[in-house]
Design a protein that fits this description.
mainly alpha, 0% strand, 181 residues
């Protein structure tokens, strides 16, 4: 599947700017981690998984990670992409456990990019470029801040990857700095 084919599929089911931006943020973050973790030759695949991970969320939020499997199969999407995207709903809506390192990264950074994005919006600079780990950690501990970002999922993702929470947050900030102002 090409990036263009993935984008066309995504935009068939997603119209809201927020969802499209989130998909692209996770796509680019996944590409960064592919390079960082030694999977550079697979970065396009990792990016497509990131781009399509919330394919069903806008139209079918109650069937998130379930309906997307059906939609992708109808469009002839590779089973590896279907498994990878569905696995980020592990323990929430599906029992598809993240197995490959790429799936664990997706599981961890999906929620985390949302939390970091919310922190950035509160900053005077509105930029990730001057964002510090301690600022994200402070907001991470504040349950009322960006309440939709599941902290337990972020922590489980870090654990799956064998990373400390601080390392995961810092590396995700670093990823976002490579493509966001």
């Amino acid at each position: 599947m090409t990036r263009e084919e993935a984008w066309n599929l995504l935009t068939e089911y997603n119209k809201e700017e927020f969802h499209l931006q989130h998909a692209q943020t996770v796509e680019q973050t996944m590409r960064y981690f592919a390079e960082k973790l030694g999977y550079g030759e697979e970065k396009d695949f990792w990016g497509i998984v990131g781009l399509l991970h919330d394919l069903d969320f806008e139209q079918f939020p109650e069937q998130h990670c379930i309906k997307s499997q059906e939609l992708m199969r109808e469009h002839g999407v590779d089973e590896k992409i279907i498994h990878a995207t569905a696995s980020h709903g592990y323990g929430i809506t599906v029992d598809i456990k993240p197995e490959h390192e790429m799936e664990k990264v997706l599981y961890a950074v999906d929620e985390l990019t949302g939390l970091i994005g919310a922190v950035v919006l509160m900053r005077p600079s509105k930029s990730v470029q001057d964002l510090e780990l301690k600022s994200v950690k402070k907001k991470f501990k504040s349950k009322g801040f960006a309440a939709g970002c599941d902290r337990e999922v972020i922590q489980r993702g870090a654990d799956m990857l064998g990373m400390t929470l601080d390392d995961l947050i810092q590396q995700t900030i670093d990823a976002l700095r490579t493509f966001q102002e």
